[in-house]
Protein 1
Amino acid sequence: MGAPPAQERPGARAGDRWHVEVDRSLCIGSAQCVHHAPDGFRLDTARQSRPADPDPLANERVLAAAESCPVEAIMITLARNGEPVFPPEE
Ligand code: SF4
């Protein structure tokens, strides 16, 4: 079983925007994020990932990308209040 859909997470609202960051000190350029969310992430010339849009609408592809990152370099928060989406709060 995977994680619940983004819009069904506790506290989620339709039309939520997320804030997406990549910790470039961790990113190893594996491109898993680009594979899962080709419209959500880009690799730059140094093979470091960047969010294509740092404040996208909540969506499953970006969440799957964050979950797939082998070094947990992708952080997602709710844009409206900074609440963690991924990684989830313990
Ligand atoms: S999946 Fe993680 S390590 Fe791989 S390119 Fe994306 S952010 Fe970097």
Note: The beta strands are 18-22, 41-43, 49-51, 74-78, 84-86.
Protein 2
Amino acid sequence: MLRYSYRLYPTPDQQIALARAFGCARVVFNDALAMRQAAHASGKPYITDAQASAALTAAKATPERAWLSEVSAAVLQQALADLNTAYRNFFDSMTGKRKGRKVGPPRFRSRKDSRQAIRFTANTRFKVLANGRLRLLKIGDVEVRWSRDLPAVPSSVTVIKDAAERYFASFVVRAEPGPLPEAEAECGIDLGLGHFAVLDDGTKITAPRFLRRAEKKLKRVQRDLSRKEKGSNRRDKARVRVARAHAHVADARRDFHHKLSTAIIRENQAVYVEDLAVKGLARTRLAKSVHDAGWSAFVSMLEYKARLYGRDFRRIGRYEPTSQVCSACGVKDGPKPLHVRAWQCKECGAVHDRDVNAATNILALGRRERLNARGGQVRPPLAVAQAVEAGSRRGAA
Ligand SMILES: [Zn+2]
């Protein structure tokens, strides 16, 4: 399941229709949530999906909620389905059935939420027309900027309005583009701090200028906002500018990640990345730069593209001290403070760039894992493979 997002350009009339649909979906969601919370508070059993759906039908017959009939019934049903999913995730998280970060109970939606969304599933007959417009029930034929091709017929579309007042269509597609022809090369990637990424062949990748420029602008408008008086008109305007700049940075970053990950996956049969376990870094001073660089988003792109195109992708355990071990002779040379960018191995005399050396070690570790996984012939283990040191961290190591 893949998501493909495109910018939408609704006409003023369509914007009004969308605003109405966002509002109705929100009310349906909130009504059902309030009903379930009330049942819970008075010790009654959980209200089933069917009961919530019946309550919606009954509400539409009342004068207070009659206006819900102005929007597509399927959009309202979808709002209920979203709430049901939110509850299911919450229950599964509580019982431990769902792994990962804890999921809280569903929360009320607000018209002030920075993201407004409605979903159309295939059976509600949204349709991509021959003229490139997107037909949405009770909204109209909306203009789309097709920045890339949809690889297959989508199964659903979510229409989103973000804080910068832009509209997007996010399609869900079950796509099987199939494997690429086999490539010779393999690649180890060190996600550096000085550079966005360093490859074992010595390539150092920095964020492109358009992204750095967008980030600079974001900082400037954020500073402007902090200087504006609370509750003032100017502050409201500054807030919209910040939201726009944020969106701009996010777009530029996603674009950069897409291009880079596609290039790396195309050229290499296997790609190995150090597992940063970004969450483990969350409270360190490295955290900010980790989040700014958006590594985890980039690494997940590498991962899904590898799966898509039949490439091998591996994360190398985060406790392997890849920056301490000489990639030439395998001797562990001891911890190096962050400011040490280059060093010479005391054993074999090889001179290393810190990040390229780490990338080379990641490549060696990845190759070993890959061979093991295939049950193939394994070379004698490198020193780096045994040097497991709990608590060491990339960068601080
Ligand atoms: Zn050495």
Note: Residues 326, 328-329, 331, 345, 347-348, 350 surround zinc ion (CB under 6 Å).
